Structures are given as C-alpha cells and as structure tokens.
Amino acid sequence: MFFLTDTVLGYGALAELASELKNHGSKRPLVVTDRGILQAGLIDRVVAALGVEPAATFHDTPANPTKDACVEAARLFTESGADGVVAVGGGSPIDLAKAVLVLATHEGAVETYDASLGGTARIDGTRLPPLFAIPTTAGTGSEVGQSAVISVPGARKYILRHPDMKPRVAISDPELTLTLPAAMTAGSGMDAMSHCIEGFLSPRLNPPAAAVALDGLKRIWTHLERAVEDGQDREARWHLLLGSAEGGMAMTNGLGSVHAMSHAAGGLHELKLHHGTLNAIFLPDVLRFNAEAPDVDLAPLAEATNCTSVSAFIDAIEARNERLGLPASIAAMGVSRELVPDLARTAKADFTDRTNSRPAGEDDYTRLFEHQFGAVA
C-alpha cells in the first residue's frame, strides 16, 4: 500500500505551488484542466501561482476523460517540451493527467496499459515526469491515488494503475472549492464517501487503510450536507477536502462492486453520467448485498456514523441521497433496462470487482442492475 503523495492542505495552500515545482525540478509544466475550470477563472489563479511560464495549457478534458483526449494532451506535452504536469480540477483532469504521464513516455495505446490486462507491469515508473494535482472538488481523491479511469468509446472503461502515477504533490486549497455548485458538491461528496466505505470493506487486510477510511467517512458524513446547504461554509469545505483525500488513500486498498457498476454505467458515453452520482445510487443496494455474507462486517461503518445498526446505516445513505437531491436510480438518469445484460458483463470484468467484500457473479450484477428499474423516481 502506498501513501506517498505529499499533501499541502489548508486555506492559502496554492501559494506553495511554485516552491513545490522547484523542489521537483519542473520548469515548464503542462497545465491540464477542463473548460468549466477555465471559465470559472481558477486557471488564472493557478498560473499566477506557478512561478514559471507553463509550457502549454490543455483545457479540453471531457467530463469522463477519453482515450482521444489523453492522446491529444500527451501530444501537446511532447510538442511543447513540458517537463511536468499540473492538473487542476476534479477527477477527470487529474486522471487524464496521469494517463498523459504514461502515453507521453511509452509506446502503445491506452488499452496497452489497462490494469485488468496486465498493463501495470508494462509501465516503467522511472520514465514518468512529475505530476502536481490541485483538486477543485472534494470527491475523487485522485490527487493522492495511483489510478486513472479512461473511457474508450465502444468499449468498457480502462483503468491505468501504477504507484509512480501518483501525484508527487497535492495542493489541496479549500478556497478553490467554495464556488462548487451544490449538485456537484453532493455528487462528488458521495463519491468520496463510497471510496471510504469500499476501501474499508476490501478483503485485503490493511488496518492503517481501514483507520483512514473510517476517519474520512466520519468527516464526510458530518460535513457534506452543510457544504451543500452553504457552499461558503469554510469549515465544512476543509473537512470535505481532507475526507476526499482520505478516501483516495483508502481506495488504494481496493474498491468493490459499487465502482464496478459505476464504471459500467459510466461507459454509456452518450449519457455522460456523473461518476459520483452513480456511486451514490448503487451504494445502498451493494451494501445490502455485501451484508448478507456472514464474514462481512459493516458494523464499524454504522458505528462511525452514529447509526444504531447496519440496516439503519444503509437506510440513512438512501435518505441522504434523497435529501441531497440525487436521482433515485439509473433508470431516472435515462439508462434503458435492455442494457442490463451488457452492464452486468462489463461490471463483472471491471478491475474493482476483484476486491469487493463479497464475491459477486454476473448473475448478482444482473439482479443489482435490475433492481434499479423498480425504483424510478
């Protein structure tokens, strides 16, 4: 397990960016972001804090980073003579930036490095330039993680994963999250919560990861609704950003069927479904499925959230989703029931299926997906 990303957390942390670039020898970084961050004016603040001129800026990161966007950004990295990458935004720009590290320094397509196909062994970590992550949402934990989820139209999502893909430094300044809209705060916060929960439930024995997961869960559980109700709640934003990072640390221990299902549904490219919202939707059903196994203990999760029982904890997640205004099902998000067989096969093939706390077969995924079409709101 690797917790090797230096994290600068706190209001005003962005001021540390220039010294961190210098410490890691980056004089011409490529800045990677998306158009929403660009239009919000946050990139101007980041560029002003670099202390050097960026080699170039790539601002066309899609909501779910695609193979084509990764290839284009890697080309820009090479042509601009960049020597590092600064990723600004949510999980999409940070994940795309991680793929750039690989594609700009290795031969082959994104699929070549898919972890489920042995791609991790094909990555030479010594070739990867330094990555600096500046999260503007509190959700994915990608700023401290070693994985990138990349979409390939017409195929399932691919996961690139290597210890040296982790950012060298995460600059986590809650000031950059204060203008995040309520809906994005809700969806990204539930994403972070799912990382803490699935990281805790991973069958891999790792007590430090379990402790980090429970601490992150407590912070998110306590502060998420506060931040959704009042985006300027500085204390809540601080705790959410820390909880998100803790979720990112916990998920290095493995995720599970919630993410397997989210990756499958997120692969429906024409719908552009939000990953964190999908996790929130699938979380209660998967937890009930896991709780049926006698060797899976969800009681510490209930205790951490002051719920009286496991069933009360799962019910409380459903109630919270409703209060946050999240969809009740993927059917309500426009997914067709006829896609269930394909979704079930894709979920079973996903890398994260391997570390679900209870083994799940394709028939289990079929039942879990089918349940989504009896709960349309």
From TrEMBL:
- Residues forming the Fe-containing alcohol dehydrogenase-like C-terminal domain are 185-371
Its cofactor is:
Fe cation
Supply one GO molecular-function term.
alcohol dehydrogenase (NAD+) activity
The answer to keyword NAD applying to this record is yes
What are the entry keywords? NAD, Oxidoreductase
Catalytic activity entry: a primary alcohol + NAD(+) = an aldehyde + NADH + H(+)
Q: Which InterPro entries match?
A: ADH_Fe/GldA, ADH_Fe_C, ADH_Fe_CS, Alcohol_dehydrogenase_Fe
Name of the protein in question:
Iron-containing alcohol dehydrogenase
Q: Which organism is it from?
A: Roseibium aggregatum
